[in-house]
Structure formats: structure tokens, C-alpha cells
Amino acid sequence: MLVLRLIAGRVLVSLVTLWMVSVLVFGVLEILPGDVASRILGREATPERLAALRAELHLDDPAIERYGRWLGGILRGDLGTALTSQRPINDILAPRIANTLILSAAAFALYIPLSLLPAAIQALRRDRPVDHALSAVTLVFVSMPEFLLATLLLVVFVAYVPLFPAVSIVDAGTPFWEYARAIVLPAVTLAIVMAVYAVRMLRDNLIEVLDSDFVRMAELKGLSRARVLWRHALPNALVPTLNVTALNIAYLVGGVVVVEKVFSFPGFGSLLIDALQLRDLPLIEATVLISALVYIGANLLADVGAILLNPRLRGTA
Amino acid sequence: MSMVDAAPRAQGRIRRLWRRAPASLRIGGLILLAHIVVAATGPFWAPYDQAQLFTGPPLSPASWEHPFGVDQLGRDVFSRVVEGGHIVLLLSVSGTFLGLLIGAVLGLVSGYVGGWFDEVTMRVVESVISIPFLVLGLLAISAAGPDWSGSPLLVVLVVALIYAPRIARMARAAALDIVTRDFVTIARLRGESVWSVVRRELLPNATGVLLVEFAVRAGYAPVLIGSLGFLGFGMRPPSPEWGLLISENRSLLVAAPITVVGPGLMLASLVIGLNLFTEGVARILGRSVQIAQR
């Protein structure tokens, strides 16, 4: 029962946090001092357009009422209507989210070998030149902003070795092969950024596990080095890395914003930037809330994972 | 002891400290020092004025006159990078410092006072943290409206807004650890005010944590500011901020890649230097640190 209670508690806290984010986002965008309509229109404001926009956003209603209507819509699964395109936000979001999910899946598929292999090599060749070299390489990549890494990949694979397209514009009609080609560079960028964090952590964990008694025991039994590493050491070193992986999912929500923008990939991240640039209030609110939802969900997953994997709580469920 | 041997003696001490410092601190310190020197003196020796047009044929590749090439408008990219250094450093340090100030006060007071104040503060802090930091920055900038567009003050405030809740969480954890000790109880029983206990008992004991936290965050700030500039939400043209420079020259990628690679190398080396330096400082303070936290 203890485990269930702990998990229920975490879920409740996550829901409260999500609700507070909705208050925060709505408050920052619609209640902050200053006229919302003139902030949206900027230099294009005329008295008629201001009045029309105020009517459209119901800005003359009390803020609490507008918030209630907005939240009620969300709870019914209706995110509202975009200001600029006048289309339902649900319809705008669906293909963008699908694209980003495919991109993230590709990035994760690359992320796993990109984090496991270097960490395993480093742990087995501890303090040898190859370990130091890989440490230096991961330090360089950790220190490199996504937009820089993405731009450098563009230089190499578009200007010098023209393998991939410079812009990854895809839509529902794009043939599979073209889609796959377009997704490679953004996926590689995201995978590298996520992997370097995991590598640094996994290397240290692996070394710790390789020094432990049960690994020495396995070695003394005469098992092959490969078997010791993959069957005995790695599974034990992976547990702390699960946390990093959950945090990497949380990172992805912000990471896709930059990477999709660099490659003009029509996903969730570039939609968020477009919404901000167009000052499309309902669309901004929807996209920011969804990114917070993913972030909170990933952290919840990490916490629940830690609770379930905690041996001290085993058998109490 | 005469005044005469004082100088060489001090020199010997510095040399000994230097030799004993971790390699990461020495390498990172040198990279950082080079960046600070370039940023501070660059505007005086840059070969061209950063805004000067037609310094050479547009889109020129690297050459002795133009190490980082020439951009679309004929501006010398090397001069722009060199003159942009102090912008990147000043914005990063002041934004991080403001975030540290707000975060430390909020976290320490919250941890010491406890109760509903702590509960409410921490729920707000958690909800701000759960908006991905770049999204939070972009949201704040767009909420500020077009009048603030490209203002360095806005960039500093946004960096502080992103860092303050994260630092507050860290400071609160440190405070919860410190308040259990006797000297805090004694100070409270003496009838000292909250502010006085936080300032005179908690703060001195949390300095190590806060110092490392400051260094880690400052190490990521150039990336943050660069990302904002790159996306068109941070500094505005014609500012030579590095992220903005990289974004502007992206269209010249095929013709003159050096106009992107040059500023990119400067930005990456600055962050590498900051990260190594932080790792070294953390090692001296006996703390492990996850560098370049996102």
C-alpha cells in the first residue's frame, strides 16, 4: 500500500503543479498590466482593430470568467481557436505533434547506442588514452549549444557532403524515403545532445559497478568479459541512468524548439515559435501548457520509476 | 620581515596554489582569462569597427585581413565577434547574479521559515520550473511586448527569471540541512529576526553550494542568451551578440561557412572554459557537480 500511496501523492502534486502552470501562463499573458489587445497588435493597432480583437478575445469580461471558460474548454479537450488562422487549435496541433513524436522516436533510437557504446568503452578502458579522449569529446558536445551543433551539422552534411536536405519541410504527402532523409539531421542533433549527458553519468556508474564484488565474482567464475559487461554490470548501472533518460524526455520539449527551427521541421517546437512570433495568444497558451504537461509527465515518470525500483519499498505494494 | 621579500613570497604562494590546482581548473581558467581579456580589450584593437560596412567583398572566406570572413553586408565577422564578447559576458554574469540573488533569498528564507510560506513558495517555484526553460524565456519575452524587444535589460531579467527558481530549490535544500544545527536554534532563541538569521547564520554556511550553483548557471548562460538571440527573441540586430551573429550568417553557410564556424568556436570555447573552471572549483570545494545543467 505504501508504494501506491507514494505514487498517488506524486500524481496529485503533479496535477496541482500543472494547474498552477495554467494559472501562471494565463496570468502572464492575459492579466499582466497593460492592454492585451494593443500588445498583440503592436504597431498595427487602430481603434477599430483593437475593438474587434477585444470582442473576439472577450477581453471586456472579468479575467476570472475568461480563465474559467478557457480551463473548462481544456478539460473538455477543446483548446480553442487560433487567432491568426481561425482554425481550431486541436486541428493545427495534431499533425505537428505527430511529426515531433516521430522525430523524438528517431532521436531516442539513436540516443541508446550513442550513450551505451562510448560509456562501455570508457569504463572498460578506464584512465587510458581512449577514455580521456572520449571524455574530452563529450565535454565539447556538452558545451555546445543545440543551435550551434545543428548549424555545424548543416555545414558538413549540406555544404561539403551533400547527403541530406538543408530544410526538413515535410507534410502528410511526403514519401517515406524523403521523410526519413529529412528527419536524420534533426534527430542526430537531438540524440547527441541527450547522449552526452547520459554518457558522462553511465561511465561513472559502470566503473562503480565493475569494481563491485558481484562483478569480480562473475569474472572469477570465468565468464567472458563481454558477458560480464552486458549481462551483469550494465543492467545495474542502468538504473540511475533511467532518471537521466526521463529528464532527457523533459529536455526534448525545449530542445525541439531550437532544433526544429534550425531545420524548418514542421513540428510542435516550430509551431510554438510561430505562435510566439505571431503573438497568437490562444495558440501560445495551448503550446506552452502542453510543453509543461510533457515536462511534468516525464518528471513524474522518473519519480514513479525511482519508487518502483527502490528495493527498500519492495513487497510493500 | 622587510617589505622587499613580500612580493616574491606572494608570487611563490600563487605558483604553489597553481601547481596544486586540478588540471580542469588550470585549463578552464586560462580559456576563461583569454575570453575576458579579449572581451575587455577587443573594442580597442578590433581590425574594423564592428558595424562598418564594405570592409571587403561580401561573403569572403577566411583570410589574413578577415580571419572569420566577411558577412552579407560586408562587415568583418572577426571584429564583430571580438566586440560582441563583452556583451555576452556582461549579460551572462549579470543575469546569473540577479537570479542567484533572488533565488538564494527566496530559497533560504523559505527553508528557514517553513510552514505555509514555504509550501506556497515552493509550489510556485515548481510550477515555473516545469515550463521548459527556453519556452519560459520566450514566453516572458513575448509577454513583455514589442516595446521591450531587443533590450539588454530584458535579456538579463529573463536569465534571472529562468535561474531564480532553480537556484531557490537548491538554496532551500541547503537551508533545510543547516537549520537543524544548534547555532541556528541558538540564534532563533536569542530572538533574532528572520532576515538576520538568514543573512548571518544560513548564508555563510550555504556559500559553497551557492558558489558552485552560480558557476554552473553562469556556464550555461551564454548558451541561453545565444539561443534567444538565434531564435530572434534576444538581442536584436545590429547587436554583435554571438547567437544572433550565427543566426544572421546561417544563410551564408554554403558560400562562407567560416562566418558561422568562427563565432561558433568562440561561443563553444567560452562555455568549455566555464565548464572546466566550474568542475575545478567544485573539486576544490569537495563537491561533485553535473556541468552545464539544462
Give an overview in words.
The complex is a heterodimer of chains A (317) and B (294). With 317 residues, chain A is an all-alpha fold. Chain A has a domain of 186 residues: MetI-like fold (Orthogonal Bundle), CATH 1.10.3720.10. Chain A is built from twelve helices and no strands. The longest helix of chain A has 38 residues. Chain A is globular. The model of chain A has no long low-confidence stretch (mean pLDDT 84). Chain B has 294 residues and is mostly helical. Chain B has ten helices and no strands. In chain B, helix 4 packs across helix 6. The model of chain B has no long low-confidence stretch (mean pLDDT 86). Chains A and B meet through helix 1, helix 6, helix 7, helix 10 and helix 11 of A and helix 4, helix 5, helix 8, helix 9 and helix 10 of B.
Show the helix and strand layout.
The complex is a heterodimer of chains A (317) and B (294).
Chain A: H1 2-31, H2 36-41, H3 47-56, H4 63-75, H5 89-124, H6 129-142, H7 146-160, H8 176-210, H9 213-220, H10 225-262, H11 268-278, H12 281-309
Chain B: H1 6-20, H2 23-45, H3 77-113, H4 115-129, H5 133-144, H6 152-178, H7 182-189, H8 194-230, H9 242-249, H10 258-284
Helix pairs in contact in B: 2-3, 2-10, 3-4, 3-6, 3-8, 4-6, 5-6, 6-8, 7-8, 8-9, 8-10, 9-10
